Structure prediction request, 84 residues.
Amino acid sequence: MFYYFLISNKGKITDVCPDAGKSSWPELVGINGEVAAKIIVRENPKVRAGIVKEGMMVTMDFRCDRVRVWVDKYGIVKDIPQIG
Prediction:
């Protein structure tokens, strides 16, 4: 729902999560997912980073304290990790 708000209203992550800190990590696309998760938590200790393998089902709720690290079958980050 909040993600839809961000896309449809061109809102900013700070509109929903005012104290989010760093909220996306485009520089991590293409690296190992485990390494990426550690970098995310180091750069923003307010979030938890979880590895999600390609094809896994996840909940659609938006959380300011969660970053999903989407990886391919080789464990490489395939999408930009971001708060949500």
Remarks:
- Strands lie at 48-53, 66-71, 82-83.
- The domain at 2-83 is CATH 3.30.10.10 (Trypsin Inhibitor V; Chain A).
- Residues 22 and 43 are 7 Å apart (CA to CA).
